[in-house]
């Protein structure tokens, strides 16, 4: 259709106003609606061996596989160790919403299969944590962190979970998140709060967790999980990973299937891997990827040598970014890359209607997914009204963002929403392509999630690598943005940067 794109003028004006106003927040302490159940593991947790004591700090996947192949470790013992750490530390951190009561059985089956036929791949017997908007078959629940969905059990695993199981992985449990992927409220701090799990905390101290994949990031940072899977609409993988000093990737559009993931905005939504290092991330993504790409083949310490890196300097200049930018420059020089300045021609204008796009996702994509599971909740407004009946239990951190999205989406029709998605995707793609072309860059470098709306809306890949800490002590990450479909190359660049920098921080948990 060639009709001019039209959106409600009042909603656009409100969007502009609300994007400038940060809602007042207060500290709220709430109990878990479903306390973590350790009963299935009590007998197993009574046994602690030298093999599990040697898991602190937790090794990466290749070393874990070496130990399991050598008979020095079993998947069952690894799971037992992780659950013990969760029991000791997660009541404070709130990274998990639910543990898989069958995970020990899954691990034992993986051990038996290894003993009989050898490992089927690098994820064989590896425990993986999943963000709780990713469907898992029973007995696990899939809640998106919402009281409304507390008892929801999906009939089948999401496609990506099927792939993980086929690769030999075992499902450790479901992680906390910013409820409904961050569209309800930002909570007392930035992200990481849900009615089901309460407010997550950052293991590095009194810092925000980021969202919406807060629990997925925190579980990896705290050595509760070997690797995890999160999801992103705009920054929801990158920022919590950066603020927890772990690695995460938002792949190119459709690299990972979205089937079975509770949506926020189909146009942007993507699941992605989280890990403590790029090697583990590459192995996890390879199992999830629909194209069966061998991402480990891209892992080279020389991947940045001779590569032109476009640093989005103009957008990053601020006192708080001075030290991180210096680390980026030093590391790129050591890695043999050519660093140039890059910028986007007009990102503010190109994506001025992004708030409307997100509101449309809530109005159509998210609401339809809820109605399919709760026929009595047929719209975002119905969800808001349901929550308002018992706010202390259902929305203990408020629902201001949801109210905003409802206002912005009022009057937006589906065909206009689809036109808006197409228009903003083209605009974001144009911004990125021009930044690459004008600078001659092979990859763009940013910090944290400053440019998430652009790459996420375009469907281009992004990956964050730990960059140490800011002067406040809060972890920070460098964000690499690639061209659409260049996921393997991007992983190679990230690996080379990681090897040259070695700036990952480790939280001090007693």
TrEMBL record:
Coiled coil: none
Residues annotated as signal peptide: 1-24
SUPFAM superfamilies assigned: Amidase signature (AS) enzymes
Keywords on record: Signal
Domain of life: Bacteria
Pfam families attached to this UniProt entry: Amidase (PF01425)
Domain Amidase: residue ranges: 78-444
InterPro entries listed in its UniProt record: Amidase_dom, AS_sf
Protein name per its UniProtKB record: Amidase
Lineage: Bacteria, Pseudomonadati, Pseudomonadota, Alphaproteobacteria, Rhodobacterales
